[in-house]
Amino acid sequence: MSERPEHKPALAGKATTEGSGIRLEPLPEGHLLHVMGAFDGDTLAESLTAAGLAKSAIQRAGYQQWYVTGDEILPPAQIALLADHLRGKGFVCDQSHGRIRIALSGFRALELLSQGTAVDLDPAAFPVGHSAVTLFGHISVQLTRTHATRFEFAALRSFAENLYDMLEHAALASA
Amino acid sequence: MASLISCPHCGVRPREEFTIRGDASLTRPAADAGGDAWYEYIYLRDNPRGRHKEYWHHSSGCRRWLIVERDTVTHAVHTVCDAALAKLGGAA
Fold first, then answer.
1. Can you give the pLDDT of all 175 residues of chain A as single tens digits?
2. N or C: which end of chain A has fewer CB within 10 A?
3. B14 touches chain A (CB under 8 A)
4. From its phi and psi, is residue B22 left (phi > 0), alpha (psi between -120 and 50) or beta?
5. Which residue, A34, A30, A156, is CA-closest to A83?
């Protein structure tokens, strides 16, 4: 047995679940960077472009905090490059190992989400690109609307399996 | 207690997302203030009727400390502001 722990995806055993009007899938464990700093989202977007991360998504995660997410695994040098661009203004903390992303889509996704969270998900209050840190049941999650009927969760790694089971159960129960 | 708190950063959220700390009007005594002043600061609390300012932490949201002014009789929440920004003199 190897001395060093091997990286095992938290939702490795989970398959994509599809019901009528609902689709639940674990997303690749790519990158999730926690960025904190006294600037706005536009400044962060410029720094991401400068660091070659223009394709990554930016999600607001509270006052002067963001998550930068994407499907690709980033080499440490690229994360260091972003940190260099933000030096003096903000900080980057790599949380790729710590948070797991799950996608929920379909025309009945909204109905399922309303069972677990109290955030107003009406498109007028929660448009595409909007993000909120909230509770889903008793689990703290970052919830983002990526398309009109597609949402993304980011949850702490140790809660990911539990959250996935809960969503799967709800998706199949309402199918 | 009202079931909804309007967080200045996140919008209207259920109170299950928040954790209460208590009275926001307490002033920490000087280090050499003496036993009585410290005893009062640490242990003695009023049970006010009416408007009351409290510290609440948005623990399952933006994780910011807030000052919530609420009415202990009617359960109405009057004002909510960011505690750190209020201390710095800025608006939340």
1. 668 877 788 888 888 888 888 999 999 999 999 999 998 888 999 999 999 999 999 999 989 999 999 999 999 999 999 999 999 999 999 999 999 999 999 999 999 999 999 899 999 999 999 999 999 999 999 999 999 999 999 999 999 999 999 999 988 886 5
2. N
3. yes
4. left
5. A34
> Closest to B62 (Cβ–Cβ): which among A62, A119, A120?
A62
- In total, chain B counts a number of residues equal to 92
User: Which tokens is A75 given?
Assistant: 């080499």
- How far is the alpha carbon of A67 from chain B, nearest alpha carbon, in Å? 13
How would DSSP label each residue in B24-80? Answer: S---PPPTTS-HHHHHHHHH------SEEEEEEE-TTTT--EEEEEEETTT--EEEE
* Three-class DSSP category at A16: coil
The dihedral sign for the CA sequence A63, A48, A75, A91: negative
